[in-house]
Amino acid sequence: MSFQRILGQDQPKRIIQNALENNSVSHAYLFYGPESIGKKLTAVEFAKALNCEVSGPKDNCGNCPSCRKIDHAIHPDFFFLEPEKSSPAGRNAFIKVEQIRELQNKLAYLPYEAKTKVAVIDGAETMNPQAANTLLKTLEEPPSSTILILIASNPYQLLPTIVSRCQGVKFHLLASEAVRQILQQSLQPEPEEFSEKELNLRTLRSMGRISRALEEDIEATDIYREDILKLLEQASFRRMDVVFKWTRQWARRSDQIQPVLDELLNLLRDLAVIKSQGENAEILNRDILHRLHPLAEQKSARTLFAMFDSALKTKSALAANANLQLSLDHMLIQFCEAA
Ligand SMILES: [Zn+2]
CA nearest 145: which of 168, 113, 176, 167? Predict the structure, then answer.
């Protein structure tokens, strides 16, 4: 395997392969862009290309001892840091200053067997100021034969002094075709696991991210969608029975309300897209276009926007522990007012 296994990130690949070919690789990179689109994979292929014993300089063979050790994360000169929780029950994970110090100790020596040591710091934006300032010393005085690759979904959370010392490489959301190909590859050796219909649906709904395409619970999604469509079709001041039945039903299932609201936002988004751009636009729920079309006809763009806004505010309020039943009632009354 090689850079070829990275699908749909042509620009980042070009930047890296040009640097490899022209022997102009920087000391530090910042790979940034949304989660689950190939940043980590690219960092690993980059590390392999820098050290491959067979191919090069632009690519790697994937098969020599160096490539294999990096792939299995057992190469003595390849370091991979990711956020760690303070305790097993802890909620958030961080890159800790101890991890950075330990890395610095390892980078202080010449490579054991590699041409170039590579350190990848995934979730770099989770470094606290102490960890970031410690890393800054390494970026200011880079050890010889060493390349640092920082990976971040939210690069604006990094210290500007860190960002300015790295070469930025921007990664984009994946196009549908790339998502589909990656899904198909990931199903090997059991390609029958997803039906063609499910593969299409997962691709469409992935929004360009592989984790979303793979992990989504399609069965649950189907149930939520049907429930929300019925609500959108019927909710009005004349049918308050429907409205209150819906809120009662979901107020009892607080654990599922966030995915339900996400689904509601997806459907409202699709309706607005159909309204403004027509049916050929990128519609996440294309498989139920026959249900979405009449709804889009029935509602004005202003109504759809007001509903989307209300659903988004409800989602944030619930994430901040607002009362579930009251919040849902309030949202649906706003839906009726907008309709
Ligand atoms: Zn190799």
Answer: 113
User: Tens of pLDDT along the chain (339 residues)?
Assistant: 689 889 999 999 999 999 999 999 999 999 999 999 999 999 999 999 999 999 878 899 999 999 999 999 999 999 999 999 887 777 789 999 999 999 999 999 889 999 999 999 999 999 999 999 999 999 999 999 999 999 999 999 999 999 999 999 999 999 989 999 988 888 777 777 788 888 888 998 898 999 889 888 888 999 999 999 999 999 888 999 999 999 999 999 989 999 999 999 999 999 999 999 998 888 999 889 999 999 999 999 999 999 999 999 999 999 899 999 999 999 999 999 987
What is this structure's pTM? 0.82
110 in the same domain as 235:
no
CATH number for the domain harbouring residue 163: 3.40.50.300
Task: For residue 57, report the distance from its CA to the centre of ligand 1, in Å.
Answer: 10
Going from the Cα of 95 to the center of ligand 1, the distance in angstroms, rounded, reads 30
Domain termination residue (choose one: 149, 172, 195): 172
As a whole number of angstroms, the distance between CA 274 and CA 104 comes to 53
| Ligand 1 centroid, distance to 211 Cα (angstroms) | 28
**12 and 133 share one domain:** yes
217 C-alpha to ligand 1 centroid (Å):
37
Q: CB–CB of 84/44 below 8 Å?
A: no
- Domain that residue 230 falls in: 217-338
Q: What separation in Å is there between the alpha carbon of 78 and the centre of ligand 1?
A: 14
Rounded Cα distance, 300 and 339, in Å: 8
Instruction: Please tell me the distance between residue 63's alpha carbon and the centre of ligand 1 in angstroms.
Output: 5
CB 48 within 8 A of CB 66: yes
Distance 173 CA to ligand 1 centre (A): 29
